[in-house]
Fold each of these.
Amino acid sequence: MTWYNAATGLWDGAWWNSANVITTLANFAEQFPNEIKHITDQVFPTTLEKAPKAYGFTGFLNGFYDDELWWVLAWIKVFDVTGEKKYLDKAAEIFEDSKNSFGTSSCGALWWDKAHSGTNSVENALYITAAAKLANRRPSTPHSGYYYNEAIKAYDWFLASGLINSDNLVNDHLSAAPGCKNDLSTPIFTYNQGIILSGLVELAWSAPNPAKFNDLANTLATAGIKHFSDSNGILHEPCEPNCSSDLQQFKGVFGRNVLFMVNRMNGITAEQKATYTDFLKKNADSIWANSQVDNQLGLIWSGPKGSVTIQTQSSALDVIVGAACVS
């Protein structure tokens, strides 16, 4: 909480990153409520009330659909751990802005931003995941299929788009229309590999053919672990050691979604569960041994220790919380 400003409801003034910190805290609260309740009882309502005012936004809406959808996921998770309907209502309210724009991209789905500068993986994977989660929490509101149909529509588009390459890695964006092809020259990021995982797991809960969603989640998760991990099994972002503040957040998103698979995937095999559990524990152990100084957590989880930001701290905490949850 070193970086938290109660006057703004944000961590170090960071916008979408603060949504991820809220999600991290909610994950922790879900597993260890007594350890953090004195913090979350203050932080959750404070951020809900004050964060948009810090930048003059209206209801968590700004110029970027991915930013908005991070907040949707954050408030859904807070609803899950508090049971307070106001958080789910806020998530649904924010989601409407993306829903009203889905399909308007020149490539057929959701634009990354309201300036229409590109069609990326991040906002469309977030859209799938947000819609799937809302479908399971509001199955008949405002009417049956309202969110589920959006999730399936976006899922179908995502698979047809070619964003998942031949190595089962999720590329960052499509080329401009009329081409709309997977731009294989773009970097591959851990968060693009992770965002969709919990959405796929939740789609499987209510879909008539759940296996295809779980199979894709397992395929993407194992491909991500293989591609982004070093020989010791420690996750790295390709930009290390010189990652921007946004990129410093990415690895935790992947780890958080792997944890969701361990805890919530129906029909997960013992082998799959062992793979993901080992991944979380190994990375958490390495963070604590090699990237921690006075409880502050750095960017490179295999070491050496380096500078710490709210992004590196919360990203690493995602994996440490994950390891604690499966231990």
Amino acid sequence: MGSFNSSCGQGFILVGFSDWPHLELTLFAFISVSYSLTLLGNAAIIALSRRDPRLHSPMYFFLSHLSFLDLCYTTSTVPQLLVNLSGWDRTISYGECVAQLFIFLSLASTECLLLVVMAFDRYAAVCRPLHYTAIMHPQLCHALTISSWVGGFTNSLIQTGLAMAMPLCGHRLNHFFCEMPAFLKLACEDTGRTEAKMFVARAIILVFPAALILGSYTHIAKAVLKVKSVAGRRKAFETCGSHLTVVSLFYGSAIYTYLQPKGSYSDSGGKFAALFYTILTPLLNPLIYSLRNKDVKGALWKVLLGDRDSG
């Protein structure tokens, strides 16, 4: 069997969905349409957040960063998946694989932290409405966003470094991109200690943020239930409901994939779970925020109607 050095030289074959050739054409069509809509939807959110004065608030500042993350996040994997499904080329060099692994983990980890920041923003808006402007001032918003990016890339650097230190055997990567659980299955030796270190890093980036988000929304729910006005209560639930939906979609699939031991990891299940959080979640995020948010819908209609209503 090949070791670390030969893996570096020869790269990998991405198995992708070649085990289900009858699905490849359907997946190619579905993913092509989904990717196009993802690019359009997230780019629209970014453009609207910058263009419309009503969206110049901390919530939409964070939302535009989430959309930018999703654009990069899905672009780091989907174009290669489409090439893989077409059958043109199923290979990837070792350097490209490591780069993809690092970039994907960086963006995913950053999104984990950014969702915590967005939960804190909603907590401040609902539970501290009179002090919201003072709490979420621009300097803090920028500092929280930068911290999310730095934390995400640091987490990825740690995990990617641990993965690169392992000797690898074999060149068939049973996935459609270089994802950590599939990558670990090529290790030649016992990866128990490495997995333990990675598990700690993953728990910090997944479990701890999820617990903070759960705590934030527990306080939000208590505050909302104290509101006597039905209209006020409904507005608060609508404002936070979109964020909770995004959090559930993202964290649910990520925890399923990354917080299970290598021995219990299913190659088939991992591939379909990855489809969910690399394609469906970035596609649904702009739809969830636009369809459930009056400000975004108003800004969109204003653009579509050519500002005729303001004239």
Amino acid sequence: MNRQNCWICKMCRDESKRPSSNITLEEVLQWAQSFEKLMATKYGPVIYAAYLKIEHSDENIKFWMACEAYKKIASQRSRISRAKKLYKIYIQPQSPREINIDSSTRETIIRNIQEPTQTCFEEAQKIVYLHMERDSYPRFLKSEMYLTLLKTLQSNNS
């Protein structure tokens, strides 16, 4: 990814759109402390998702975020509808954004979505979280996107 195409790089070059008023240096520095801290901050998941999209592996973060939203659904009727949608998009073999999970987890989800609970995707969400933490998170911290954002905020603070 070169700086000409990166939307964060463009944003950082354009003074009127610099994220420093929203994204703080403190927050960006927290991202390097742990994946958990990255995911717990306001802008961390958004920037990380943009990075994963560039890497062509954003299905994991999209699934993780969809699961977070799914857990908040109170209505059983809405939960059934959303569970089927999540299955079709992320779990079903050959689905558009199929996530990498083992067959036993996939089979458990297939059984659970008949009468979905708020936790029926929990195991798959944990697996995806670990994939992101172990694989793409270390690359994110070394990426041009992260390093450029960090340098821009450091120079704005000095």
